Amino acid sequence: MKKLVFATNNAHKLSEIRAILGDTIEILSLDDIGCTDEIPETADTLEGNALQKAHYIYDKYGCNCFADDTGLEVAALNGGPGVHTARYAYPDRHDPKANTLKLLNELNGVTDRSARFRTVIALIIDGEERLFEGIVEGTIPTEERGTEGFGYDPVFAPNELGKTFAEVGPDVKNEVSHRARAVRKLADFFLA
Q: 38 pairs with which residues across the strands?
């Protein structure tokens, strides 16, 4: 079985990826390789951040790996928060609750609530790079809905579900999410 390091410190993302990939690929965490570093994310695109993180692990630890970056792109915010999604409320830290509250406040009174979540996965195997993208179109409700999931899950409703990710739970989310779509492309690459 192929082993890959997933360059993330986010336990939610790690468990999501493992659930989506199942037994296709053995996913190692940063803890598994002894990496406790804060991996830089200073690029101005999702693709750039994903590649930066993957190269950091590949160059420093010599492990085949992948990294992702995800952005919420809201039409009324000209595609924002985009690359700043995780640090939307505060540029120096992650605060998911503050992020969702800021988003709802920014969209207060706005009628066009269309948005999309986009994930880019950068894979590096033996020095070769590949990119995989997953997109899910949806809307931002006027208030948080649901209690499952993490991050923006209570305020993003994929068009095909009509409910937020937080209302449908992880099993349904893992079938239709942006990350799931990108990960399936990654898995298809290994199965081809």
A: none
